[in-house]
Prior knowledge:
This protein is mainly β. The protein has one domain (2-91, 111-157, 180-241): Porin, CATH 2.40.160. Helices cover 8% and strands 63% of the residues. The chain is built from 1 helix and 14 strands. It has one helix at 2-20, and strands at 30-43, 47-51, 54-58, 63-75, 80-84, 87-101, 104-126, 133-134, 137-138, 142-166, 173-180, 188-200, 205-215, 231-241. Strands 1, 4, 5, 6, 7, 10, 11, 12, 13 and 14 form a 10-stranded antiparallel β-sheet that branches. Strand 4 and strand 5 form a beta hairpin. The longest helix is centred in the first third of the chain and has 19 residues, at 2-20. It is elongated. The two termini are 31 Å apart.
Amino acid sequence: MNIIRLSLSTLIITGFLLLSSANRVNAQSNGVGIKAGPSITSHLKDFRFVSGDIDLELTPFSSAGVDIGLIFRHNISKKYRIQVEPSIHTMGARYEEGFELRGFNFQTESKTELLYIQVPLLFQISTTPPDRLVYGRQYSATTYHLTGGVFGGYLLNARFSGTNTGAPIGIDFAGEFSNDLTDQYSAIDAGVILGVGLESGRRNKIGFEARGLLSVLDSGGDTEFSFEPQNLGVVLAFYVII
């Protein structure tokens, strides 16, 4: 939790400093902003956990996360632009599955929680409505855009936690657990992003985008056993550009 608080605090402070100096930026060619939104993430392949005589292979289901970051935009033209978005992004998956341990059957309700610093590099194609004046003022139309690009990520923290239940000696049992998985995952993640969105405004803009992301690297990092989960997710981002 200390890592999460420190990362978010650093990102927020940096964002306020950038926004406070945004008036010095030529709004016709560049912009800075803040984005935030929920995400739904999982693994493309099964999750594996090995510790002592425990060897689990679990089917991943979707889990909720969050994406918070900054936006640095450069407008190549009215139609084309590029963006860099340093972000704090949580990923992971949820598991509900039975397993056998030492001859006894158990049920797990658990999840992996992965915290990344992520830096997407994006190219966007936007619609370009004609310039219009309404009562002498520039009309602000809604535009729509397509997004494509790549991302790199660095893993800050990874945990596997939840509750196991069963009746190994005829008595109902429920035990909570929490394990550090940082050494089991690769420190580096990278992949591709595709998205679609809309925004409104002439200079200061508010917008929304839905995007999907998929790791092209195997995010497992343990050399002692096979583990290649690959992250994937859908992000719903709300943002402001000034």
